[in-house]
Hints:
The structure holds 2 protein chains of 2 kinds. Chain A is of the alpha+beta class.
Amino acid sequence: MSIAPSALPISMRRIEKRFGSVPVLRDLNLDVEAGEFLTLLGPSGSGKTTLLMVLAGFVRANAGSIRVGDDEIITTPPHKRNIGMVFQTYALFPHMNVFHNIAFPLKQRGVAATETAERVEKALDLVKLQGLGERRVDQLSGGQRQRVALARAIVFEPRIVLMDEPLSALDKGLREHMQIELRALHRRLGMTTVYVTHDQREAITMSDRIAVMNGGRIEQLDKPETLYATPQTRFVAGFIGESNFIPVECRNGSVWYEDRRIHTAAPTPASGQHLMVVRPEKLRLLAANAEQPNGVNVLDATLSDIIYQGDSFVCYAVLRDGRQLTLRDYCRSDVLARMPAPGQPVSLGLDAQDTILVAAE
Amino acid sequence: MRAQPALMQETARADQSLNAHALRADARRESLRLLALLAPSLFLVFAIIIVPIGWLFWLSLFDEAGALSAANYARFFEQASYIKTFVTTFKVAFIVTGACVLLGYPLAYMLSQLPRRAASICLIFVILPFWTSVLVRTYAWLVILQRKGLINSWLIDLGIISQPLSLANNLSGVVIGMTHILLPFLVLPLYASMKTIDTDCLRAGMNLGAGPAATFRQIFFPLSLPGLASGVVIVFVLCLGFFVTPALMGGGKVIMWAMRMEQTTSLYSNWGAGAALGVVLLVVTLALLGLFQWLLGARATGVWSSR
């Protein structure tokens, strides 16, 4: 393999950035492991793109340190950072054809013509655009442009590849296809990758780890499955997946919702107000009057509506305190057979292992 | 039961193209209506462009005695003064266009890089001269540049020169005055095209290893070329027909095409000869425009496409 970007770890320490008096990144620390695919996920305005710009060198931080391997690069100008980047708008050079676009970084590095041709050919192969070198940029489809941008970002074997919402301009089908392809390419080449997106599904599909950003800080950094199963803050629980929040109280190491004790698998905080995170797919409709095994929390509610979605259905139920819960399940015949009608009382079950508590803000 | 024969009938007609005749007639009526809407503007173009140019061309075909002849055109090849005027006109046009590019490109670049508010304030200063008449501006330049004008008296007072420089009433006066007047015609289209250059492209250039100078040379400059080309064409074509400034600032030493026309018609009342001068200028200008178009077109189809 001639294109094998060397994988180096990135270590960001106490990065601060203000635009005027508005803080965008606050005392941010982040370590990206060598060869890792790390995603910065957050709503717009959370600072994820600014952090990427600071990494690429287009935005100067007010304070902090960025080390790539052993090198401090916080003051290195962008053209000397040797970091590949895929832009949201691709930023292909419209006055050059595909070949010259991809050859551009090699030309800047003084690579000889024959080697350039070889490496561009290999890069085109990697992104499955063989034979399109002579095409003009405006003759390419959105997906092809995306691939050219990718080829251009990896052809010079950069230490790190940054991607700024690279798939957001593609339609849904192509986007999902490219997610899988990007993931496969990363597995094959093993370059350290920092990916920015606001699409939680995309982040979960592609990443080794996800850093959820909010208000210029990293709220939680974890593997996708850990992030989904055990969100540590209300923001993360609300941003990743769907959640209903039920206020609970901790007293003497046990958890109470109204007069009912809540079972949890994880150790519980000793005291204070907390929120129970209830994922729609973790809730079950319990058979009426059936004896429940231990370790299942039962919530009594009234069914208000059922929405049929083909493969699955969504139930809206209202708790006694007026709080609404959402339940999602697949349309299996046993579930459908005992489906209650709207207006009827229902019992909703939630396993202790699936019961998550986060601090009430 | 009754619906079935009706349906059959329709399918039968569909075989011979259902309603084709009516649809064709409808399309024809629509084109006629559109043509009627266009008629007033077509009439205007005809009355104020086609007719006068046709008349000009017609006039150029008659000599002073009123006989049909090619004498007016033959004169271009026979009289050295005509050829000299022709050469002077192109020389001035080239120098002025070059000066406009040298001054205008950095100016437009600066404007395009300024923050929005600062850029709009600076743009006002670029456009401001448009609000003053060309005649007034030319006289102002005369005051500044003449032998005892501002510049010469300052330079002499400061002891930098002892003899006044001849800045007005010669080629340099013409070039200075015309450059000043034509500069906005280059700056405005160039600025507009520079503003459309995607900053992400420049960032990508840096990211891929090109330093600031290399990014400018390899990305910004090529992408600004279409705007530069249109500015150059506008300035060059305006130069070819310029009258007031060379007439006032040239001191009679710089005779350009338009001045020659004015002399021929008002001094010698030779309308045929003047008309021929006009026709030649028009043809040369059109030929140049065609050449530019062809050059730009060749670029657009090659690798050097402008988005």
